[in-house]
Amino acid sequence: MDISTLPVVMAFFAITVVTAVWWVLKRRHQHGLFRRHGIPGPRPDLLDGNWAQLKEDRIEVMERWIKEY
């Protein structure tokens, strides 16, 4: 790697890390809306929320959530 390309690579890496951290913090904030308002419920995953749970029988999953929460 040429020395002149090192700052460009480092800047790209820094921007990528900052963007990833910003996205994770924003996503956690979005997923915490109900919890901040005191509404109980299942904890969502970082990437797809509760979508993986809802891929099963949705009615059954919602009935289970109603009983649990």
UniProtKB/TrEMBL annotation:
Q: Where are the transmembrane segments?
A: 6-25
UniProt keyword annotations, A-Z? Membrane, Transmembrane, Transmembrane helix
Its recorded name reads: Putative secreted protein
Q: What is the lineage of its organism?
A: Eukaryota, Metazoa, Ecdysozoa, Arthropoda, Chelicerata
